[in-house]
């Protein structure tokens, strides 16, 4: 599932490609992926511009010149591609938004969605999300206070979107590895130094992941050399049995609360 770095990469690249472009057509092939009738979506979108693309947690918000918004959550298996009739993936597209000859394909929206909402509706939809991990308001004191009130394991704490928003399976493991802490450690049992290094690791891992384009390897458009560059940078995620990059011990895979979790049993404690 795309997490904060993947969605931030999408936001930046989509802004470069589509900002201020006029929507010329809309095709809906799966009505369950949207929240209004296809005819209504078309009437609201055609001739509108995308004025801005913002991100909140794992969501993208396409702001329209009409004053409405498209709220996107890709969920598991969802991705996007910018192409045309001659250049697009041989996959089922749930929604296609056209900008003249350029098309934005939404693929794999079986669990995900693209909803047309007002500003108030978007705010309500996202109201239960925790702070942004890289947000300026989340300094170390605020992080320490939030973490100290949690009694669960680090893994389940980090993927809880009400604790912090945007972190999922991949980056929770990467952050724990960077901090040298086991993902099953209890959040409220960490000492001050461990909390500090965890906070610094979170900031560092997410910043680096954005810099390298996230871990999902599906390119956004032909010639896209940015998306997925962090996949080769992962220290533990999806590296079961491979040698730890710190101590050469084999990386362990385990299920924690039904979530696959990767760590080094030797140099994380």
From TrEMBL:
<keyword id="KW-0234">DNA repair</keyword>
<dbReference type="Pfam" id="PF01149">
    <property type="entry name" value="Fapy_DNA_glyco"/>
</dbReference>
<keyword id="KW-0227">DNA damage</keyword>
<dbReference type="InterPro" id="IPR010663">
    <property type="entry name" value="Znf_FPG/IleRS"/>
</dbReference>
<keyword id="KW-0456">Lyase</keyword>
<dbReference type="InterPro" id="IPR010979">
    <property type="entry name" value="Ribosomal_uS13-like_H2TH"/>
</dbReference>
<dbReference type="GO" id="GO:0008534">
    <property type="term" value="F:oxidized purine nucleobase lesion DNA N-glycosylase activity"/>
</dbReference>
<dbReference type="InterPro" id="IPR015886">
    <property type="entry name" value="H2TH_FPG"/>
</dbReference>
<keyword id="KW-0238">DNA-binding</keyword>
<keyword id="KW-0862">Zinc</keyword>
<keyword id="KW-0863">Zinc-finger</keyword>
<dbReference type="InterPro" id="IPR020629">
    <property type="entry name" value="FPG_Glyclase"/>
</dbReference>
<dbReference type="GO" id="GO:0140078">
    <property type="term" value="F:class I DNA-(apurinic or apyrimidinic site) endonuclease activity"/>
</dbReference>
<keyword id="KW-0378">Hydrolase</keyword>
<comment type="subunit">
    <text>Monomer.</text>
</comment>
<keyword id="KW-0326">Glycosidase</keyword>
<keyword id="KW-0479">Metal-binding</keyword>
<protein>
    <recommendedName>
        <fullName>Formamidopyrimidine-DNA glycosylase</fullName>
        <ecNumber>3.2.2.23</ecNumber>
        <ecNumber>4.2.99.18</ecNumber>
    </recommendedName>
</protein>
<keyword id="KW-0511">Multifunctional enzyme</keyword>
<dbReference type="Pfam" id="PF06831">
    <property type="entry name" value="H2TH"/>
</dbReference>
<feature type="domain" description="FPG-type">
    <location>
        <begin position="235"/>
        <end position="269"/>
    </location>
</feature>
<dbReference type="Pfam" id="PF06827">
    <property type="entry name" value="zf-FPG_IleRS"/>
</dbReference>
<dbReference type="InterPro" id="IPR035937">
    <property type="entry name" value="FPG_N"/>
</dbReference>
<comment type="similarity">
    <text>Belongs to the FPG family.</text>
</comment>
<feature type="domain" description="Formamidopyrimidine-DNA glycosylase catalytic">
    <location>
        <begin position="2"/>
        <end position="106"/>
    </location>
</feature>
<dbReference type="InterPro" id="IPR012319">
    <property type="entry name" value="FPG_cat"/>
</dbReference>
<dbReference type="InterPro" id="IPR000214">
    <property type="entry name" value="Znf_DNA_glyclase/AP_lyase"/>
</dbReference>
């Amino acid at each position: 599932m795309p997490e904060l770095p993947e969605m931030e990469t999408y936001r930046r690249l989509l802004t470069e490609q589509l900002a201020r472009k006029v929507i010329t057509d809309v095709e809906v092939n799966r009505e369950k992926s949207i929240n209004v009738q296809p005819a209504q979506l078309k009437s609201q979108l055609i001739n509108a511009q995308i004025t801005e693309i913002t991100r909140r947690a794992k969501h993208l918000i396409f702001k329209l010149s009409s004053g409405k918004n498209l709220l996107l959550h890709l969920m598991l298996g969802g991705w996007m591609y910018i192409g045309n009739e001659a250049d697009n993936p041989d996959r089922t597209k749930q929604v296609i938004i056209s900008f003249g000859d350029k098309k934005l394909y939404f693929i794999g929206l079986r669990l995900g969605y693209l909803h047309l909402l007002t500003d108030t509706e978007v705010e309500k939809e996202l109201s239960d999300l925790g702070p942004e991990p890289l947000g300026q308001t989340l300094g170390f004191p605020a992080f320490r206070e939030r973490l100290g009130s949690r009694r669960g394991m680090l893994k389940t704490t980090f993927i809880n979107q009400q604790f912090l928003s945007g972190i999922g399976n991949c980056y929770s493991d990467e952050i724990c590895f960077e901090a040298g802490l086991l993902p099953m450690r209890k959040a409220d049992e960490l000492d001050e130094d461990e909390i500090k290094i965890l906070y610094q690791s979170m900031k560092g891992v997410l910043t680096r992941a954005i810099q390298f384009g996230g871990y999902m390897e599906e390119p956004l458009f032909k010639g896209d050399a940015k998306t997925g560059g962090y996949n080769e940078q992962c220290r533990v995620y999806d590296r079961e049995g491979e040698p730890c990059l710190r101590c050469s011990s084999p990386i362990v895979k385990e299920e924690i609360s039904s979530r696959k979790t990767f760590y080094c049993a030797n140099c994380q404690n």
